[in-house]
Amino acid sequence: MELEKLILNNSASGIVVVQTTRGKVNSRNAYSQYNLCDYTGDDALRVLEARLEFCSLMGVDLDHLVMPRQSHTTRVLTIGEDYFDAGIEDQEAMLEDVDALVTDLPGLCIGVNTADCVPIALADSTAGVIAVAHAGWRGTVGKIALCTVQAMVRLGAKPQRIAATMGASICADCFEVGDEVPQAFEQAGFDMQLIMHRNAATGKAHINLQEANRQVLIDAGLNSGNINMPTACSRCRHQRYFSARRLGINSGRTFTAILRRDA
């Protein structure tokens, strides 16, 4: 398994952010070689094997790898000691319909699964608070990035100290949408000149989800210089990253994770 490191500006060396890649691509298998997501139709044993390999590379135990069961909400879950005091069934219930995780526990690897949506990893290394969010267009309209920053602040983080980085996700040129989507963004107060254009040939609207989330983070108090944008489009580079627009929703997911190692 190949892990790509993502850069967090102004963060301590003990904080690590990575994203997975598809691995060896089989055109007849939309899950490819490495998929850590267990609710999009992949074989459960293959998912477990991928998770075990990921944990080995990250140096964490399987029970210290936490990911939510995402459903395009703006719900943020803070992972504390109470999560580990709970039984497995209760843990699963806590993670249901959650799209962002926040923690101040060292040695805990938290992450989200995406296949065109924007994964956002955040950290205030001074406060020792890390977070990760899944921002599809609905979550972006609902400003899940702001909700995540607010949850980090409740654990002692300060917005001006928070660094954020986004993983591979769909670019504006690839993200063609119906008119109901820009309408939702406009109603939510987004500056449409910054995040939308129309294809001159088709008249279709295109939304820049990555820029929209950058604007939300800036409005949340982050310094623009502490926000790193994605270096790749998941749809353009669907041979390397999972893309639901290329492969369908019954496919693998790219996993973006953040970990603060023990001091």
How would you characterize this protein structure?
It is a single chain. This protein has 263 residues and is of the alpha+beta class. It has a single domain, classed as CNF1/YfiH-like putative cysteine hydrolases (4-Layer Sandwich), CATH 3.60.140.10. It is 27% helix and 23% strand. It has 9 helices and 14 strands. The protein has helices at 44-58, 81-85, 88-95, 137-141, 144-154, 180-187, 192-195, 209-219, 244-247; strands spanning 3-5, 15-20, 65-66, 76-79, 100-103, 109-114, 118-124, 129-135, 163-166, 176-177, 196-198, 205-207, 227-228, 254-260. Strands 4-5-8-7-9-13 form a 6-stranded mixed beta sheet. A 5-stranded mixed beta sheet has the order 1-2-14-6-3. The longest helix has 15 residues, at 44-58. It is globular. It starts with a strand and ends with a strand.
Please describe the topology of this protein.
Layout: E1 3-5, E2 15-20, H1 44-58, E3 65-66, E4 76-79, H2 81-85, H3 88-95, E5 100-103, E6 109-114, E7 118-124, E8 129-135, H4 137-141, H5 144-154, E9 163-166, E10 176-177, H6 180-187, H7 192-195, E11 196-198, E12 205-207, H8 209-219, E13 227-228, H9 244-247, E14 254-260
Parallel strand pairs: 3-6, 4-5, 9-13
Antiparallel strand pairs: 1-2, 2-14, 5-8, 6-14, 7-8, 7-9, 10-12, 11-12
